[in-house]
Amino acid sequence: TLSETLLILISIAGVVLVFLIPPLQVAGRENLPARGPCLVLFNHYHRPGFGAWWLAFALAAAAPARMRFIMTAELTYPGAWYGFLMRPLSRLGLRRLAGIYGFTLMPPMPPRPDEVEARARAVRSALRLIRAEPDLWLGLAPEGGDSAGGSLAQPPSGAGRFIELLAG
């Protein structure tokens, strides 16, 4: 079932984080609500040796409730010669991952004009999810991708409205 799968994700996150050096530290745990709903916004931070997926693992392990994520439907590999091969492979892998853990897939950033309908479907899917599971914790990195130098990035147009819909 989906509940069992989410428990497995939390367990996997806990096991994987055992190997994180330096170890995960959660500051301000007392400020986390004891139960949902909760919208967790985080920076899509990365640097060599630390991928953004570690943040999702850490959040899932630290959350006191079940947590799902809105994640990209494709890794884009901008400027990389191997992108033509890796983009379709990443779509397959991420679709499978989302299906296993109940994540919502969103077309990648920056927005591409031919994906307007797919993006709208993803927004509707996320809204259905939070209506169906009122105590759900939902994770989202609003800038939707890696920024140069691991710094904070300006979220794309429409991210604020999407967050407002989710928070409502």
DSSP helical segment count: 5
Distance between the termini: 28 Å
Class by alpha and beta content: alpha/beta
Envelope shape: globular
Q: What is the strand tally?
A: 4
Percent of residues in helices comes to 40-55%
Tell me the strand percentage band: 5-15%
Rg (CA only): 16 Å
Low-confidence stretches: none
Question: Main sheet?
Answer: 4 strands, parallel
**Spatial strand order of the main sheet:** 1-4-2-3
Q: Output the helix-strand order.
A: HEHEHEHEH
Mean pLDDT: 83
Question: In words, what does this structure look like?
Answer:
The protein is an alpha/beta fold and 168 residues long. The chain is built from five helices and four strands. The chain has helices at residues 2-17, 53-62, 83-101, 116-132, 159-167, and strands at residues 38-41, 67-72, 104-106, 137-140. A four-stranded parallel sheet has the order 1-4-2-3, sandwiched between helices. Helix 3 (83-101) links the parallel strand 2 (67-72) and strand 3. Helix 1 crosses helix 2 (53-62). The radius of gyration is 16 Å and the shape is globular. 17% of the residues are buried. The model has no long low-confidence stretch (mean pLDDT 83).
In a nutshell, what does this entry contain?
By secondary structure, the protein is of the alpha/beta class.
Q: Could you give the topology of this structure?
A:
Layout: H1 2-17, E1 38-41, H2 53-62, E2 67-72, H3 83-101, E3 104-106, H4 116-132, E4 137-140, H5 159-167
Parallel strand pairs: 1-4, 2-3, 2-4
Helix pairs in contact: 1-2
